[in-house]
Amino acid sequence: MRIGISCYPTWGGSGVVATELAMALASAGDEVHVISYALPSRLQLASERLFFHEVVVPHYPLFEYPPYSLALASKMAELARHQRLDLLHVHYAVPNAVSAMLAKQILAPHPLAVVTTLHGTDVTLVGNDPSYLETTRWAVLHSDAVTAVSEWLRQSTNYQLCIEDKPIEVIPNFIEPERFERVRGTAGARRWAKPGEKVLVHVSNFRPVKRVMDVLEVFLRVRAELPARLLLVGDGPDRARLEQRCRTERCCDVVTFLGNLGEVEQVLAGADLFLLPSENESFGLAALEALACEVPVVTTRVGGLPEVVEEGVTGLLFPLGDVEGMAAGAVALLRDPERHRAMARRARERAVERFSEDRIVARYRDLYERVLSGVHAGAAG
Ligand code: GMT
Questions:
Q1: What are phi and psi of 138, to 5 degrees?
Q2: What per-residue confidence (pLDDT) applies to 378?
Q3: Can you say how many angstroms the Cα of residue 371 is from the centroid of all Cα atoms in its chain?
Q4: 158 and 168 Cβ atoms separated by less than 8 Å
Q5: Is 234 near ligand 1, meaning CB less than 6 Å away?
Q6: Measuring from atom 14 of ligand 1, which residue has the nearest CA?
Q7: Residue 328 above 90 pLDDT?
Q8: pLDDT at 217 (0 to 100)
């Protein structure tokens, strides 16, 4: 199969999932063309069947807003025509799905299948904004197949975009078990810790939806009860405010900002707990990566998180903003090594059982085959 995959190249989960999928498909024999405005952070062009195509947006004095969506649609159409793509799989609806639908129409009557994967904020924050609603809804409705990364997101999409009649298949995000197995037993997070200190980790893009101030609030309460250290991976708009808060709380010596890291498993391995007090998460890929590293997750009972973290089995879930509850739950777990060990073991087991790359990539491939048989039957009729 010849597949075009378009995504955001940044550190966000949708780009990570798209990139991991592209690499897995190429190593299994498909020809995959990744399309974005920069090389995705996790993309390794290790297979001779994997290609990257940069979308270049020319600047012109008239353009206050250079039209990326058009440059992307042109690149998609050009690749589909000249690389003879069978299918475009777009991750994050805005604007990728709209550009893909335009490319499909440019090529018509030659068939080009479009699969759209919804990741969360493309529906819940951006796609439902009146500025984007009509185009997002249209692209989702007319894609040949639509997937959502959780059942929660499937239902939210139906509601927020008012598209009751469109089937949306839930295909969750995934991890490559071996990648997380390789760091097992390494010092990982413990490299930053003193003997006897518990290590708590948070990974995100530091956007308001992640509530990084709650991460610190929980940590400070834990630290008041037992020796602990906080490792923060990622970067984004709320980082400066958080750094400032650490200074006023005089806890800079036990809070380490590591910035963006490609190999998060190097920091997750050996950690005691993962904190994710988000206001919303359609899935929470960062939580899944922590589970895969045997790190129990303390998080909020919002969005798709309960589909990833099992209450009392692989982590602890609390109402949004309940920093007292999260801290008390974390302290109780850290003080009970037997319960912690059991939870850590099950975290890895459940992550591999339910979200391993082989299973999920096979589901995408099966979807592609179903879509292609439908698209070709339609073109022939
Ligand atoms: O968190 C974001 O806004 C970024 C976005 C992205 O592009 O990575 O994250 C969303 O997609 C991830 C991958 O499917 C999910 O794991 C995140 O839960 C989701 N973020 C939100 O729903 C807030």
A1: -60, -45
A2: 67
A3: 24
A4: yes
A5: no
A6: 119
A7: yes
A8: 98
Average pLDDT, the chain: 96
What pLDDT score does 380 carry?
A: 60
Burial (0-12, 13-18, 19+ Cβ within 10 Å), 10: middle
Render the burial of 343-372: b for 16+ CB within 10 Å, e for the rest. bbebbbebbbebbbbeebbebbbebbeebb
Could you tell me the maximum CA-CA distance found in the chain, to the nearest angstrom? Answer: 70
Distance CA 49, CA 71 (A): 24
Q: Among residues 16, 281, 29, 4, which one has the least CA distance to residue 116?
A: 4
> Does the beta carbon of 284 sit less than 6 angstroms from any atom of ligand 1?
yes
Cβ atoms within 10 A of the Cβ of 58, count? 8
Answering whether pTM is above 0.90, one says: yes
Q: Which domains can be identified in the chain, with CATH numbers?
A: 2-174+357-380 (3.40.50.2000), 177-355 (3.40.50.2000)
Reported as a single tens digit per residue, the pLDDT across 205-229 is 999 999 999 999 999 999 999 999 9
Which of 119, 291, 364 for mutating ligand 1's site (highest number of atoms within 8 Å of CB)?
119
Probe residue for ligand 1, chosen from 6, 10, 11, 14 as the CB with the greatest number of ligand atoms within 8 Å: 14
309 has a pLDDT exceeding 80: yes
Q: What percent of the chain has pLDDT over 90?
A: 93
The CA distance from 8 to 243, in Å, is 27
CA–CA separation, 19 and 14 (whole Å)? 9
* Distance between Cα 13 and ligand 1 center (Å): 5
